[in-house]
Design brief:
The structure is a homotetramer. Chain A is α/β, with parallel strands linked by helices and about 350 residues long. Chain A has 2 domains: about 100 residues, Alpha-Beta Complex (Aspartate Aminotransferase, domain 1); about 240 residues, Aspartate Aminotransferase, domain 2, CATH 3.40.640.10. Chain A contains 13 helices and 13 strands. In chain A, the strands form 3 sheets. Chain A has a 7-stranded mixed sheet with strand order 2-8-7-6-5-3-4, sandwiched between helices. In chain A, strands 9, 10, 12 and 13 form a 4-stranded antiparallel sheet that branches. In chain A, a hairpin with a 2-residue loop joins strand 12 and strand 13. In chain A, helix 2 packs parallel to helix 10 and helix 5 packs parallel to helix 6. The longest helix of chain A has 22 residues. The relative contact order of chain A is 0.17. Chains A and D meet through helix 1, helix 3 and helix 9 of A and helix 1, helix 3 and helix 9 of D.
Chain lengths: ~350, ~350, ~350, ~350
């Protein structure tokens, strides 16, 4: 069996395991007040020299998002997102559970446009006092569809948010593969454009953990209280801080992401050449080929993958490269896909 | 100025005011445990002989909806509605404030279809355990657009809900004008098709108040507790029970609604004959003509109405007939509309 | 049967019923944007000349409290109250349902002291970041026990709140009988001491309704949004505004309250002279005599009242005077109580 | 500096670190559907042969508690706890944030009695429909005060809960040191007495993680959905499952706990012999001596510890033994304490 189900199916890079072991007997202050978290913040700050950042480390992406919106929104305020956004789908209503509406707007391949933001904002102003007040925009980069925002697109969204008084929140659970996909912008640029963003490592070399980076000083106040309330603070937060140090002090984070991107592009090219329709062009480490029923069954027995959607006897599947995926894995997968492709021809 | 802004811009019918005055010195038990609420329940039950009903009286529609979904949904369960649904728009996020997602599905002129319900249900089953669980369907009848569900449509939605294990909840803030619009079904039929529905009177002869009618006995347990918690129980609930008695013991409720419908159809025909485009064909007491900028300005100075939407220099406005609207009011309005229509021609 | 169960067992004073009838056919803007609410605000403002007030009218006390704390507290902030406070008992967890903890502190006969506030505040500061942050103090005046805060006590609490940065919120569902009990302070004084307070009329001449008076301008922003979300805004809010006008333009509110107090003091004196133990000395319109089992049974057949608590074969009952209670009612009750008192002697 | 601040100030036992490293490259299913979590459940089930258990692994104690009460309580239901309970203090209102009241009852040294449960239950029944409905009892074992419930006490609470229809929920973040303190009951007994309980490992040999053990089958339904919603499910849950296997397959969990208890008892005896007053007699790994101001200052410079409370110039401090505390650490601490004790004498 070949494994392309997701990018968090294994543990961490050996360097992190070694660091955990080496510091396992140290005595640390609890709840993020330790020196490792402080050092990790310093390392991250050094990557974003143009912006003063406040950083908190939490165990994962869903609790990061729930904590962020609980902390920054007033009871009647809502967040704008697109229909494929993680907060709108695969978080089991975590945002609504904090009392806030997720307003769905149209998207292009998982990406929101300034026009869509403005349109929904204006509609809500027509119902001012009766409807929720849109106060934040949530984007994922890369998106759930594997697409990415260009620098121009990010600037345009940022400008629209500033104009309308909205916070821009960026979910960076796959920020590594985004920055390494040739976009031309950096972590420092992200910090300049967003009010809060996250950096996920569980899909990019780490065991677990996300950093919540707050760049808008108005949003810092009370944030740790909300983290405590949502259960987002780990007793031994140093475990996360240490992982961020390992990944960011030598740019390992970026190298792993680049590796994931390169293998994924190879895979996409192979799929294209084999004649598979693709849901959309991918730029990061997720590819979404469309299979017939027969192809799906054949492939299922040989490759472990996720089903993205199905209709009318067709399957959209997701193939994901991870930081431990090897060139040989890709070669083997392409061989299987070659055989799978023939099934259609036989029919 | 002519007043067509909404159907709750005046108080109540004189019979209700008289009843309130006549019973004003009576001593009543508080919080809905009084004889007037009991009598009102009995009257309502007599209108729905085929179904055992549990009834609670609350002050209005938003708190009715918030209380219903808070009471019947588990934390991870959600309600399906369309994008123009009151709970999705003009309740300022009241449902999300109770922790539950409102899942938006496609609609036809404000009406949900069984196909849309099934499609979104299946998508959520694909993400079982990760996404919210759709457990209820919310429809308004009449809808916010003034459209109504036919008996066949209601049966089809009811059957689909039963098939998928979903509760069917009907917002009846404008149920009177619906039942009198020639649909061919009755309160008793509604009771057979829905798990919970509301009957609003503040738009149909009453001062204020909604009845929450529970027909699914599984949903009765604990409901009064949740009402207490949301602040939905009025100390002097007898005020609402008495109003329901007056409106339902002699079918006054229906006569008022019929009056509203008839004047509204007259108005719609006049608009059509004057060449106004209409957002959609109305069946109840709301009409949505589309005006140019110049028409809008001219009419605004002579008639009090609500703006529904605006784009590209056009205005969709809402004209509503109420239980105190007279034939003379309609005649006067039609005169003004005739003048207004000419403005377009001049251009 | 004599009725002393509560002070909201009848409708309203005739003047209010007349005003409702007289204005029943007027056309009003909805949701509190009408002229009657504006006039009512002006009348209330005239009673509190030293403070600029923002006023909102809602249907009752529970929804007023839930809306206030939802509006003013951040997710991790909590409100301090005593164990008999309405928000801590008879609101079915309405405050917690908005996500906020009610921190219970010791009280004297239903009254909180500055020392109790400071002690619990300091304990929470020791757990800063781990415990909720106390941000508001909730007091009722009169309390649920019928006791009242003296002017000195109010000043002391106010000063302590200012010192610690806490909002002082006063529940005035029985503010009328408080101000008329000889305390020596006025509505204007209350406005100077509290950040937000309520004025209830359903227990003092009105059909229903509470005014939420905001004196701290920092707490005004967004308040109507939260009201909409909790369902606290009535479509025909003018009904409440009109009642407040009637009650406050000619000091009727105060005369009714004075009447309630006077009859209650008579009743308390009679109880004392008849040898009944009292739970505590009352100052307003609620009296809490303690009865034996036999007395309880005898009185239950002749008088309608509420049970406050029971232990060891004794009953604490509550006798309440209302604005329609007459001197004859009190005389009749005293006769019954005289007979009831003998039961103990017989044993 | 000697470190006695808490029992989670270091990482994990070497055996766990080795197991993590050994399995780091394995491919696992995400979100707790992996083989390590399944094996861990099997090991735990083997320790509780008399009860069928359902087990979920989460990252920590606060999120475990918030998830449990969100999952099992209806909106108007509440949980009974004592004032020192973790959910009542150091979780920043996490339970209230899910909408539920924590009802505080009297305790003896952190322990609840059946009499206190019954008294508060009955008071709430007097206010049935007006007050929250108490539906669960929360106890910690060991308590936050280091005290433990005897087997008789647990049975009595269990019986009272059964009689009143209440769920019994036990917080077992320090369950290891409880079971090894000579109480005479086992994990299997706990499983028979509680509806849900937790087992924490971050204070007893593990890096992080808690097991939520559900023994009442009625409470299983929908639990994973709520976990997803609160963000309690880690992507790589196998990390926790593996730790539980290591700790429970060879009774390492118990040996570590026994070690902590033994050193703590030594420490307590030393404190007693040195004349320190103790807040209460400890049975597990936490000791609470009371120091004067001068002693506090002297000790602070030599030992790292937590402040529990302070009043009138006295400090209650907490000294905690952990699984890495050595006999030498205790000896060194006792030496310092001997010097510290003299400070009082000098004065």
């Amino acid at each position: 069996m070949l494994y392309f189900r997701n990018d968090y199916q294994v543990g961490c890079i050996p360097e992190i395991m070694k660091a955990l072991e080496a510091n396992n007997s140290n005595i640390y202050m609890p709840h993020g007040q330790d020196v490792e978290c402080q050092k990790a913040k310093d390392v991250l700050q050094s990557k974003m020299p143009d912006v003063h950042i406040d950083v908190h480390f939490v165990s994962g992406g869903t609790i990061a998002n729930a904590t962020i919106f609980k902390a920054i929104l007033k009871p009647y305020e809502a967040v704008i997102a697109c229909k494929t956004a993680h907060i709108a789908t695969r978080e089991a209503g975590a945002i609504e559970a904090t009392g806030h509406k997720v307003i769905i707007v149209d998207d292009n391949d998982g990406k929101i446009t300034p026009a869509a933001i403005e349109k929904t904002f204006n509609q809500h102003m027509l119902g001012y006092g009766m409807m929720v007040y849109p106060k934040a925009v949530f984007i994922s980069n890369a998106t759930e569809m594997g697409t990415i925002y260009s620098e121009d697109e990010l600037h345009a969204i940022h400008d629209k948010c500033k104009e309308l008084g909205l916070y821009l929140i960026l979910d960076g659970e796959r920020l590594g593969v985004t920055l390494m996909s040739g976009v031309g912008y950096t972590l420092n640029d992200i910090a300049k454009l967003c009010d809060i963003f996250t950096i996920g490592i569980s899909k990019n070399g780490g065991l677990f953990g996300s950093a919540i980076v707050i760049t808008n000083p108005e949003l810092e106040d009370g944030f740790p209280f909300v983290m405590k309330q949502t259960g987002a603070i780990m007793a031994k937060s140093w475990l996360i801080g240490l992982q961020f140090q390992v990944l960011f002090q030598d740019d390992t984070f970026y190298q792993l992401a680049k590796h994931e991107d390169e293998l994924s592009i190879q895979l996409q090219n192979a799929l294209h050449n084999l004649g598979y329709p693709l849901l959309m062009k991918a730029y990061t480490n997720q590819v979404f080929p469309i299979l017939t029923n027969e192809q799906f069954e054949y492939l299922s027995e040989r490759v472990d993958f996720d089903i993205w959607d199905e209709w009318e006897g067709q399957y959209i599947i997701r193939l994901v490269t991870g930081f431990t995926t090897t060139q040989q894995d890709i070669n083997d997968l392409c061989e299987v896909l070659k055989e799978t492709a023939k099934i259609k021809l036989k029919k």
